Amino acid sequence: MKRLILTLLSVLPLLVLAKGDKDNRLIIITIDGLRWQEVFMGAEENLLSDTKQVRDTKLCRETYWRSTPEERRATLMPFTWNTIAKKGLLIGNRNVNSMMQLANKTNISYPGYSEMMTGMVDETITSNNPVNNPHRNVLEAANEDPRYKGKVMMYGSWKSTRFAIHNEQAGIPASVSYEPNISKKQTPKLKLVERMMEGMPRFWGSEHFDAFTFAYALETLKNDHPKVMWVSFGDCDEWAHSRKYDFYLDAAKGTDAFIRDIYETLEADKFYKGKTTYLVTCDHGRGFGDEWSSHGSRTKGSEATWLMLFGKGIEALGETKECGPFQTQQVAATIASVLGIEFTPDNGTKLLPIEVK
Ligand SMILES: [Zn+2]
Fold it and tell me: What is the distance in A from the centroid of ligand 1 to the CA of 237?
């Protein structure tokens, strides 16, 4: 039996968490609309020199321009390239045929999150409206498993994310878009963050700044010790739509640091240390060149997504090449595999978890 398991593991490197392993934790982090181009090549020269899209082009160049893509990407996302790339794996650099994309054809956010969490495409889901998802999702399946029951939580910047997992029906506590935090322990720190958020102008209407999502998530992880948490960031997408390339880059850099802080905090906590898998991905890509600010069914290239995995059970394969095309709808199966739970999407088609051979 042992030999059989070992054989299976060598073929499916991501399925290393055996069923019945009772002590798994999973942090899912999504970065709305961050392009694979910036993740894998860093800042784009034409855009950072454009005075219409950057406030101080000299400063932006000093901060983000380096002569090689490897230096540029490590400057933009140092934790990703100095730590995740060494400890885990990255999928989605199209320059080396590492391919991941959406299965849904809308290339917008709600259908992207729905695809990711329900493991299927519902062609009637075509808008970003905050309406409850009619389909069962993988976090709901986790919350029904005795190992994870009551230990699944979600924080998001954008209002519609909670509806994509229909969190109330699914019994998953969630807080999005200027809502109070959901920790069971209301510490002075959490109350201060909440107070600061209340005092902020509602710049994007239905979406608060990621700094608040980060602070809520970090404190709640420390206080409540959930076994599964989805942390959904949104600043990159908002700044991109406003065609503010410097702010978009700042948001990518800031999010990379948030991920580092979450990782370092959890790995210093014995509840999480060595027991936690981290999955980072996006809901859609964006266009090329001048179309960088948009995404949608008519924006070529905005179907391109990417994914990073690191932590417990993940092989240190680094930046993958010549693999895929994987689809974002396989993320649900990947989550189920990491948690060792059964999950069949509502359309009855069980997809394979994302695996790199
Ligand atoms: Zn968008």
Answer: 5
